[in-house]
Amino acid sequence: MAHVRAAQGTSSDSNTRLGYLYDVFLSFRGKDTHRTFTDHLYTALKNVGFFTFRDDDKLKRGEYIKPGLQKAIRQSQPSVVVFSKDYASSRWCLDELVMILKRKRTTSDHVVLPVFHGVEPSHVGKQTRSIGNAFSRHEKTQSPNKVKGWRKALAEVADLAGIVFSNEADG
């Protein structure tokens, strides 16, 4: 995992004893929030000492990184998923969300915190507006089973208690 950056904070002793490498797994759509909101969130987590996984912006997207991301998700206590306007346009983000929710279903202590940045939870859950537009495109190029799994994952995560930022400001 040479292409992975993690916060320089110190992982808590309790997480290490529990077998976790990361205090937080941070999932987001890079084009939307990487240089703004997600950078602020990552820096805040790092500043309070949370050892945080996020993929490097030079990391090439593709199936060959899937095992590494699955391992990072398994080695993280909670996952924070930042939903943004174009989140659902990324097949990779949707696949990552499915991996995160699979872990949540199979591991009782894995918490998933959704952060809705510039989108409403109902848009995510019901796949309307920009999320719905992305799915219209996916339905033309992806298998029906894959699209169905993504839709189910978005509906599931939208029902979780999360944080809503309707302000379009960077911070």
Automatic annotation (TrEMBL):
Q: Which domain of life is it from?
A: Eukaryota
> Which species is this record about?
Malus domestica
- The answer to whether UniProt assigns keyword NAD to this entry is yes
Query: Transmembrane segments in this chain: where?
Result: none
One BP annotation, GO: signal transduction
Q: InterPro entries this protein is in? A: TIR_dom, Toll_tir_struct_dom_sf
Q: Which PANTHER family match?
A: TIR DOMAIN-CONTAINING PROTEIN (PTHR32009:SF154), TMV RESISTANCE PROTEIN N-LIKE (PTHR32009)
Give all residue intervals belonging to the TIR domain. 20-171
- Name of protein: TIR domain-containing protein
Q: Name one Pfam family in it.
A: TIR
Could you confirm whether the keyword NAD appears in this record?
yes
Where in this chain does the entry annotate a coiled-coil region? Answer: none
Keywords of this protein's UniProt record, alphabetized?
NAD
